[in-house]
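[job 4471] stage=fold_predict status=RUNNING
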Amino acid sequence: MKENRRDRLDDLYRHYARPLYYYLYKMSGSKETAEDLTQETFIKATVSLSFYKQEDVRAWLFKVARNAYLDEWRKRQRRSKIPFAGYLFSRDEMTSPYGLPEDEALNKESKKKVADLMSCLPEQYRSILYLREFESFSYSEIQEALDLSENQVKVTLHRARKKLTQLADEHWREKHD
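[job 4471] inference complete, writing structure tokens
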């Protein structure tokens, strides 16, 4: 039985580690934070896996990942109130001075624009858009992952798309005025 559980965890990790990492990276904007939170998600999965059926595990893992992200975000908020925290936790000294090849730079720039627009949205809008558009979650999976009713999922998704479109329009007008 112990071996079966380990095989199941290995399978889950192979199937969901990458999508969870990308979700957490989009939410946090930090590769290192996304890596840490992905590992934390699977640690929590190791402890609680026996409570979830296979068909529920995808939404449940994203729910665990979102909660881990929210916990990290709250810690960051508290940390930002510490004097000199900006200096102590600065990542600028770790940034590489070397640029990417030109073709990758253009692709990265357009992805950054979308990420910048997404970062202007409230967390719930970012989460619901990411799960639906990037992870192709069904409404019922989103409902479970975000603890919302089906109607709340539809309304929130509509409002998130509308807000993202509004932000994109404002950005385009500012750039072309």
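[job 4471] summary: The CA atoms of residues 170 and 176 lie 10 Å apart.
[job 4471] exit 0
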